[in-house]
Structures are given as structure tokens and as C-alpha cells.
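(Protein data)
===
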Amino acid sequence: MTIEARVNARVAEVTDRIARRSGDRRARYLDRIANAASTPVRRRLGCANQAHAFAACGGHDKKLMQDGHVPSLGIVTAYNDMLSAHQPYERFPELIRQSARAAGGVAQVAGGVPAMCDGITQGEAGMELSLFSREVIALSTAIALSHQTFDAAVFLGICDKIVPGLVIGALSFGHLPAVFIPSGPMTSGLANNEKAKIRQAYAEGKLGREALLEAEAQAYHGAGTCTFYGTANTNQMLMEIMGVQLPGASFVNPNTPLRDALTCAATERALDMTSLGNQYTPIGRVLDERAFVNGIVGLHATGGSTNLTLHLVAMAAAAGLTLTWDDFADLAEVSPLLARIYPNGSADVNHFHAAGGMSFLIRELLGAGLLHANVTTVAGDGLAAYLSEPKLGSEGTLTWHEGAQASGDSSVLRGASEPFQKTGGLKVLNGDIGTAIIKTSAVAPQRHVIEAPARVFHSQEELQKAFAAGELTSDLVIVMRFQGPRANGMPELHKLMPPLGVLQDRGLKVALVTDGRLSGASGKVPAAIHVTPEAAEGGTIAKICDGDLIRVDAIAGRLEVLVDPAEWRAREPMRFDSSIVQSGVGRELFAIFRDRVGRADNGASIFQGVAT
């Protein structure tokens, strides 16, 4: 392929090597979706099959579907009214159906997918299902679309594993046009930095549970995504910069006229892109190597969630593309950090949006040659369309206007010529402990290298007991192992952050080394995460003993144990005790996932090796 001349040399190099590395696999994928597009199933279904498909439709829609000459739109929804981000989706299907009728089409809810809240399951047994819920969502999406009665689909999902799962499922039907429709962030509540202080005070015993609960309720207070820049909001940035959401759609608050207008416009756009017209735009061609590179650059430029180092790899694989962590690391070296959103700053996503948001971010990255402009998007005009912002006219008509030319708040969002830091805050670490990811955008520069004795734990509860007992009084590197995908599903270890933050604030040198994950909102403690090979498959992290000197070096990209090499080689790794994986809360049902799952650097996916 030809890379645009203005694209940064490193961006071009990484894009080209992804294309070369993926050549045969991507070609097979494109052949498969081309074959699917050339033999549309709906129009050749048997009469009984078709009758089942429209039996419950109203008279108008039933007549149109029976005639078979109008586009049919499938809705795949992650609605439930427990997740604040997904509760607004309750209203969306009817909005979409009405918009489809007005545009001369028909829309039906094709199916629902599960949506769990990591905020509720943090530190609880249910968190061990969290990562695998991505795979369940992908499978549920495939089931929803398997009826093969749709010409396009829209996807209603926003949070942590939900968007990646929907993308994987959508790409398995890559011949269909697809538009992702967000619900938007909740309005700002208790400031994120104030919330963090209260959490640490509670961890130190300075505040009671009642005060903590009141603070959390003030922070998470209404419908919409949590306002910090965790995985959910990182997902929305990605869907926009990768071209599968409408321009400016990511961070408009829910239940507003503008949000409803964007939902209707997304419906119309999905119908415009079907093979029945002359703007056919299948998602399998939208999400190519250039789109994924654009997404990775956006991840770095905004200081996004480390969870996406897993999810983007798995999503790309579903499109026949092979990403590696080295691709992330190499792009980080040329991607400036342009946003400071909590935990990388004190602002929330509403402040980011008000300061210029996605249109300003994309403008600056395009101007610096860090994004591919001539990509296929659902907006139909490459990334140029994403320099605009949606607005409602006096009569409620949706229009797009040129986005901000300058940041409205340089403490939140900056141009490429004056970044917060010159490189993205993500590094790949290598060494005799394995390979890991570290995010440094929220870590003070003086903590980018930590060398201290190891203290080994096998659960968050063990560490919290040691902290409460006053045992952690000197510099240390916490080693939290047997937390990888094969061991227990790779839960987020968010409950580690308050005590580790307290220790760091007391002046200790503190770092974390783990084969588990952290919350997308964790940041200020240096953490080497996603260590692979994981302890449960005999990775050398299982060799570490209390007192071993560990060096976490985010500058040189090293993760090392400083013990005698002969002694290190002679050590046997601790064996995984499978009895620590408890049953209950559905965990026993996911044993087959734990047995099947691939390594973290391959996306921690059960679909590894599945032919595209």
C-alpha cells in the first residue's frame, strides 16, 4: 500500500510492517468478507425463514421487509439499567427504528450482549470474569447477526470489554457496514483528584465507610460513562479516531437533544452505506492497518487505558491483522502527550470535550503527520470529516461546523507544538522477569526507575492485610503473581492502588510487578503489568522470592531481577495451585476459557489461532 507522503516516518514504518506481517492473513480475511458480500442471504432465505424474521414487526415495517427492497438494519445492544453508561440505551432502539423508517429502511434489535461493570466487581470474585466477558460479547454479537437478515448494523456499547467485544463480533461479519453509537459521559460530579484523596484517607483509616460511600456517590451520580479517562472513555476516543463513530459523537452527554440527533444521524448513515446503494462501506475495510495505527497514536496522545494494549491486539486479529507490543512502543516514541485527563491530570472528559475535544486532538495529530488522513470512515470523507463538531441549529437540525482552532484550556488539552511531554506515556519492558507494559504519563519522572527488594503476594487481600498490619515500611517492589489470564482470568487489581499510593506518599520507593491488569484509571504508582509469560504457565515471575532486588526501569525499558545469574537459572518457578481458582459467581463456567486463552501480548484472547 502507499502511505501518504506527509505521514511521520515512524508512523509509516510501523504501518508498513503491520501490513507486511499480516499480508496473507489479511488477504484471506478480505476474500472471506468479499465472498459474503457477493452472496447476500436475506433475499434468498426460504419463505418460512423470512416470515419468522418479520413476524413481530408492525404493519408498515412488515410490508417493507416482505417486499425485500429496503435496507434492514440490525441493532446489537449492550443495554442494561445497572451500568450508568448503558442505561441511556433503553431509549435508543425506538429512536433508531423511527429514524430508519424516515430514511426508507427498517431496524430491529438483533440481539443483546452482556455488559458487566468493572467498577462494581473491583476486588470481588466477579472481576475474574471481566476480561473473558469480551469474548462472550463477541460470541453474542455473532449470534445476533447470524440470522443473516441485515444489510448493516449499529452497535450500542461503551464500556471496558464491551466495545472491544462488539468490534470483534462485528468484524466476524466484516462485509456489513457498521456504526458504533455511544451514549456519552455523565455530567461532572465530585472532582476526580478529590475522590482519590478520600480513597487514600479511607485506606489509612482516617475516614469511615459512610464518608467514602458519600464521596463515591457524588462522583458516580447519574447516567453516562464515569468521567475519568479509563477504559470506557478511551474506547470512545478510539472508535472516533478509527472512523467507526460519527465525528464529535464520543463525549456528548446522554439524554440531550444533540445526543438524540447524533443517534438518528448514525442510523441514517448506516443505511446509506449498505450494498443496496452506491456508498457501500463494510467495516472489515474501514478497520485496516492504518485505522489501527491511528487508534494507537490516539491512545498515546491522550494517555489512554493500558487495557487497550490487550484489546487492540485482539480486535486487530479479528480483522486479519497482527499487532505487537513493539508497534505500541515504537509509536509511543513519536506520539506527543496532548491531553491531561484524570488520572493523568485533574480534569475529566467533559473538560476535555469543552477544551476542544476530539476535533482539536485529531487536527493537531494530522497537522503533525501522526495520523493517516486518507482512511475509510463511516463519515465518508477520511479523517478530514473529523475536524468538525456537531451542533443543533435553531430548528433542531443537526449540522457540523469547523472544530476549535485553539485549545480552550491548555491545562487539559494542548497542541502538538507544546505537548505535556514529547512522547506517549507507554513503554514495553523486557528482561529476565519477562515482557510487560508500563504507563508513565501519570507517574512523576523521578519514579520512572525504581530499584528495591521484592515482596511477593498472590492476592490483593494478602497485600491489604500486610498493609493494615504495618508490615510495609521500607522501599519495595510488590510482586503480585498468579493473576494472569490462565490463572484466574486476569482481573484488574484496582484495590492495590490506595495502599500503594499511601506508601508512595509516605516517601517510600514503590513499584508493582504483576501478570495481572490494572484499572484504566490507575496511574501514579509505577506498575509493570501484563507480565508475560505469566506465572501460571511457568513464567519467570514465578521464580521471584521475597527480598530479591528488582529493577523497574521505564526509561531503558528493562524489567530485571538483580540476583546471581547462576542462582536465578537454577531456581524452579513456583507451580500454579489451581485450587486457588475458586468456584462460585460463575467462575467454574469459565474454566474452558482459562484453558484456551492466549498470552497477554497476543491479546489474552480465546480466539488466538482462529482462522480469519
